[in-house]
C-alpha cells in the first residue's frame, strides 16, 4: 500500500490505512498506524540529459511518471522543447514493501495527440541505504529497442523507515477521519491538476480565473540587445547563436545570428505578468546546427521581483554553464487586464462603464498609452449540434477563446452536445488587425482534449452587438465540421492609435505549431509563388511586344506615352499613380463591377494531414527514419517557408489595392495623399537630405533602437489569399440567429 503527496499538498500523512476499523477497542491492527515495516521515500526529480527527440523540430516536451506496483504515484510538470530539462520537483511516497521497485517512465507531451514514449527505468529500493541522501542516475531504455540510448534521469532519494507508538482506538479513529478528509482533498487536487496539465502551455485553469478575475497583473517588455564574447561552438571558432526566453507557459525565440560571437539582435517582445511578485524569466543561449541537435551555449535568469516597475532596466547577464554575456532592456509596466465573467456581469450594458470605455478610446486620447488600441468583449453563449466524441454518444465540450497571445477557457459542460456556457470574455486590443479565434474541445480526463471545431473572426469585420451563429470549421478553417456556436461580440477602438500601431512590428504569437514537412503545403506554396512570378513575366512579355511592334497601333501609343512620361516625370507621380489605382478599384467595387479575383489557390490545399501524422507518430521505426533525414527535412521546410513568404508578399500587395481590408486601403489612401503632397511641394534633394540625416544620426540618438520597415509592417496586416480564404469560409458559416433552429 502506498500514497503520495505533491509539494504543498493539502495533506502529508505519515501513515497508511487498512480497510476495516475495529471499534471494540481490543486491537489497532485495522486502523491507520505507523507500521514499523513502512518506509517513506522522498524523491527529488532533478533533471534529464540527452533525452530522445520525439518532435519533428528535433526536440521533445518531456514529463516523468513514477509508478509503484502498477499505480501512478507522481507526475512531473512538462518542460517544453528541451532535451536537457530541469525539473527540481519533490515527491513524498509511502512504501509498504521494498520489493516493489520504483518504475520511472518518460513521455513527450503532444497536445491533441497520443503522448510519445521516451524511455523507462527501474530503481531497486532494496539497494538504497536508509536515512542517507543518495544521488541516482538512471539510464532510460525502450524494452522494444534495448540497444537504443534514450538519455538519463538524475534523482536524489532518501529512504526513511516509519516507526511510532501504537495509538488507542479513539486517536486511531480520529487519524482515520483526518486521513479520509485529506484523501478527498488530494484526489480533488489531482483531478484538477491533471485536467489543467493538458493546457499547461496555453492558459491558466478556469478555477484560477474564478479565484482572481484578472488573469495578469502587468506586462514585461523585453529588448534583447546583444551578446558579448559568447562561446565558440563551431569548428571555425564561431557560433550561430540564438536565445530562448521562458516565463511560465510563455516563450519566445530570437532570430539566428550567423557566424559571430558578438551578435546584435535588437529584438523586442512582451510577456504577461500573472503573478503578483513577478516571476523568473529563464534564458538559454544556443548555437544553431543544421542537421543535428543545437549546441547549448549557456543560461541565465532574471528575477522580476527584484526589478522596480515603470522603469527600464539595462541588464548585463553572465551566462552560467558557458561563456559570455547577454545585454537586455527590461521594463515592467501595469496593464489593463483581460477577464472572464458570467453574462450577468456585462461592462458594456452598464452605462457608466460603457461611457468610461468610450472615453478611454476617444479621438482626444490619441497619445495616451499607444499600446492600448481598443476593447473587445466576447459573449460565448452556447453551441448546438456538436460532434460526438465519446463512446456514450455525447461530448464534454469547453471553449478556448484566443486573441494573439491572450487565451481564456470556459468551464466544461459534461455529456452534452448542446452546451450553454454564457460567459463574457474581455480583452485589450493591441492590434486592430488581429483575428479572434474560438475553438471548441472535448475534455478527456485520461488523454488530451479532442478537437470539435473552430472559427476565426477578424476584429475589423465584427458588427457590434449582433448575435451570430457561426458554423464550426476544421483545424485549417478550410471546410465545415459539425455544429454551430453562438457569439455576440463588441469592438471599441481608437482609429488613430490603430493606424499608428499598423506601422510597427506585428506581435509574434508565442504558442504556435512547429513547422512540419508537408507535400500539400509545398505544392500549394509553389503554385502561389508561380502565380506571382507569372504576373511579372506576363508584364515583361507585354512590354517586349511593344518593343517588337507586334501591334503597330499599340506600340505607337506606348512610344508616345513613354516620351511624354519621361519628359515630364516628377517623383510625386509614383504615389499619385498608386492613389489613382486605389481610387479606380474602389469605384469599380461600389459600382458593382468588382474585379477582385475569387479564385482559390488550391481548392484542396489543406486536407486533414493529422491522420498520416498520427500513424507516423505511433510507428517508432518511421520516427527513427525521420530523425535520420532531419537535415533534408529542415532544408525542405525552409524552402516551403520561403515560398510562402514570397507568395504572401505579392498577394498582400495585390489585396491592398483590391480593397480586401477597407480600413487598410483607406489608410493607404491617406498615406499616399500625404506623400504626394510632400513630394509635390518639397524638392527631392531636401527629402533625401532629411532621410540621410535621420539614418546617420538614428543610432546616435537612440543606441538601442530596433530597426523596422514601416511599409513591410503595414503589409504584414494585409491578409494573403490563404488568409482571405480562411476568413471567407468562417463568414460563409455565419448565419442569422433565426436560421439556426434546425441545428437545435
TrEMBL record:
<keyword id="KW-0677">Repeat</keyword>
<dbReference type="InterPro" id="IPR035892">
    <property type="entry name" value="C2_domain_sf"/>
</dbReference>
<dbReference type="Pfam" id="PF00168">
    <property type="entry name" value="C2"/>
</dbReference>
<dbReference type="InterPro" id="IPR000008">
    <property type="entry name" value="C2_dom"/>
</dbReference>
<dbReference type="InterPro" id="IPR013583">
    <property type="entry name" value="MCTP_C"/>
</dbReference>
<comment type="similarity">
    <text>Belongs to the MCTP family.</text>
</comment>
<keyword id="KW-0472">Membrane</keyword>
<feature type="transmembrane region" description="Helical">
    <location>
        <begin position="556"/>
        <end position="589"/>
    </location>
</feature>
<keyword id="KW-0106">Calcium</keyword>
<feature type="domain" description="C2">
    <location>
        <begin position="200"/>
        <end position="317"/>
    </location>
</feature>
<keyword id="KW-0479">Metal-binding</keyword>
<keyword id="KW-1133">Transmembrane helix</keyword>
<protein>
    <recommendedName>
        <fullName>C2 domain-containing protein</fullName>
    </recommendedName>
</protein>
<feature type="domain" description="C2">
    <location>
        <begin position="20"/>
        <end position="138"/>
    </location>
</feature>
<dbReference type="Pfam" id="PF08372">
    <property type="entry name" value="PRT_C"/>
</dbReference>
<keyword id="KW-0812">Transmembrane</keyword>
<feature type="domain" description="C2">
    <location>
        <begin position="351"/>
        <end position="472"/>
    </location>
</feature>
<feature type="transmembrane region" description="Helical">
    <location>
        <begin position="663"/>
        <end position="691"/>
    </location>
</feature>
